[in-house]
Amino acid sequence: MTTPPADREILTYADFGRSMRELAQAIVDDGYEVDVVLSIARGGLLIGGALGYALGVKNCSVMNVEFYTGVDERLEMPVMLPPTPKAIDLSGMKVLIADDVADTGRTLELVHEFCRDHVAESRTAVIYEKPHSIIKPDYAWKRTDAWIDFPWSVEPPVTRSA
Q1: pLDDT in tens, 26-52
Q2: H or E segment at 99?
Q3: For the chain, which residues make up each domain, given as ranges?
Q4: Which CATH class is domain 11-149?
Q5: The whole model's pTM is what?
């Protein structure tokens, strides 16, 4: 096995499983009773599903937000993509917003703002938090300033075999 570059954080699938159990335990120990897990797609899809299972929450929803366009390349501001959940469907609920990383924090901020006036309470859970994030997640497994290689996104998309 080669040593990863010093400027990279490498998450394995085993680390992912451990991080989800530890985040779920932190949420439970904090007394937060989640009604719905709201995953930010795409990075938060696996996180939201895993936390839903670990917390015993079957009510899961997705919000599509585009921000990153490549390695350390992003749009000026995150953009919500359709379809977006109807705010009425979240009304009065305790929402757990799930994403892979709080890097700039702008994506979490956008989704948190969307939820703010409609839900009883919303909290955020991420695997990684960067020190410069404008949002401090309620739950973060690890803090890092390095670029993160997630096991589901380090390989290029699959293409048709010749």
Answers
A1: 999 999 999 999 999 888 999 999 999
A2: strand 94-102
A3: 11-149
A4: alpha beta
A5: 0.85
